[in-house]
Design a protein that fits this description.
Length: 392
């Protein structure tokens, strides 16, 4: 999973710590290493500490060979088809990659006789809890002892990954741990997860590149942290004295609707929501010109200067009253996880984890990243070039 969000941050962290990092990338007809290209090192460099191998979690022989060749001290299994909604479309594949893929790594380490040498981190997930309210602890959070009730093929596959990791730890005395991580985001988050979909769309709307965004369930609540803080925990979990399972979360939960509001606010746009259920929409209520200019580098015309209200939104700056969000039920999931909120007390007290980001600084980081990204598109368009049509 080195080419993914977490894999790229973890690789940076391990390189900083002096590790030799081996990662597995999938063969793809296009380059798929954008997130780690800045770490690439020429294989002829005698001090090479970053190496990519072709492979796939569905290929046991390939995994076994790479593990045999590299004799790793630590394995972080971050590889997965990680999109919950997509898992309903590809349930067998998800079972194979996210579930059996975990077994393939554990079994390769065992067959190669590396049980005592190689520590293994398994990327488990808060999706295991399924958001069942009766399973929260007495303080209202999910913790290491809360029962599981997965609500998607992704969650069900990950539950196999969780238990097979625990089983290999108990059966073969392996240092194999689960990190039960709640949602974590960043400017490198995949474009189709809700936070990144929002920050990309808001940046485009602010720059006049897009009129509105369609989302699904605005009522869902998530415990959102920053991926940089979470990969540090992955490393700490493998440095612990004993192999155990750990919940990593912020302990704060927020609705999707509120994330939308915060993202718009970063570019000086106040939105108001009207209507209910599938008819709910968001409109531009006010624009803080100073904040808008600071965030986008564009000057928003004062009333009278540019006739804000009548300005067409398309290819123009956002206008007061503009409809910027609608609900599209096609983004609803057959079964939804309504609420996630985690209790990271064990990780904080026993491993000394101190996250650096809160939700506000996470949204700021993501918005700054996407405004910068979309400004490149605006620049290209202005110069008469075409831009990629990438839709969520
Ligand atoms: P991500 O951005 O989707 O990255 C997933 C990685 O897995 C990518 O490198 C992807 O390769 C790779 N992969 C997919 N299918 C594979 C296969 N068949 N064989 C080998 N590699 C494969 O996910 P992430 O957000 O970094 O999350 C990392 C891990 O943590 C995942 O296991 C995810 O399920 C889990 N997790 C994530 C969160 C979260 O909020 N981010 C929370 C809890 C748990 P390509 O780049 O080629 O697609
Ligand atoms: N993706 C998406 N797109 N989600 C939407 C949308 C939309 O347009 N509109 C509303 N949502 C809601 C989803 O229904 C869900 O309740 C919530 O936003 C979060 O969705 P995602 O960002 O796709 O993440 P997730 O919580 O389903 O899964 C992520 O977190 C898990 C940990 O809890 C993934 O990273 C998983 O891999 C991870 O295990």
């Amino acid at each position: 999973g080195i080419t993914g969000q977490d894999g790229s941050y973890l690789a940076e962290l391990l390189l900083e710590k002096g590790y030799m990092v081996h990662g597995i990338k999938r063969r793809s007809s296009l380059f798929n290493t954008d997130r780690v290209d800045h770490l690439y090192q020429d294989p002829h460099d005698p001090n090479q500490r970053f190496k990519l191998h072709y492979g796939d979690l569905t290929d046991a022989m390939n995994l076994t060979r790479i593990i045999q060749e590299t004799q790793p001290d630590e394995i972080y299994n971050l590889g997965a088809m990680s999109h919950v909604a997509v898992s309903f479309d590809t349930p067998e594949y998800v079972g194979n990659v996210d579930g059996l893929g975990t077994l393939r790594i554990l079994e390769a380490v065992r067959i190669l006789g590396l049980e005592k040498k190689t520590r293994i981190y398994q990327a488990s997930t808060s999706e295991l809890y399924g958001g069942m309210s009766e399973n929260k602890n007495e303080r209202g959070f999910y913790d290491e002892l809360s029962p599981f009730y997965p609500r998607s093929p992704y969650g069900v596959a990950k539950i196999y990954g969780f238990w097979i990791t625990k089983n290999y730890r108990e059966a073969y005395n392996m240092f194999a741990c689960n990190g039960i991580l709640f949602n974590h985001e960043s400017p490198r988050r995949g474009e189709t997860f809700v936070t990144r979909k929002i920050t990309r769309a808001v940046a485009k709307i602010a720059l006049g590149l897009q009129e509105k965004v369609f989302l699904g369930n605005l009522e869902a609540k998530r415990d959102w942290g920053h991926a940089k803080d979470y990969v540090r925990m992955m490393w700490m979990i493998l440095q612990a004295e004993q192999p155990e399972d750990w919940v990593i979360a912020t302990g704060v939960t927020t609705k999707v609707r509120e994330f939308v509001r915060l993202a718009f606010s970063e570019v000086g746009i106040e939105v108001e929501f009207k209507g209910e259920g599938v008819d709910e929409k968001a409109y531009v209520k006010a624009i803080d010109q100073e904040k808008y200019s600071e965030a986008t580098g564009l000057r928003y015309p004062k009333p009278g200067e540019g006739n804000n209200e009548k300005r067409p939104a398309k290819n123009g700056l956002p206008a007061i009253g503009q409809e910027v969000l609608s609900v599209d039920p096609s983004y609803f999931r057959p079964t939804e996880v309504d609420l996630l909120i985690g209790d990271p007390t064990k990780a904080k007290e026993e491993l000394g984890w101190v996250p650096e980001y809160d939700l506000a600084s996470l949204v700021k980081d993501m918005m700054q990243g996407d405004v910068l990204l979309m400004k490149k598109d605006a620049f290209l368009l202005k110069a008469g070039h075409e831009i990629l049509k990438q839709a969520e």
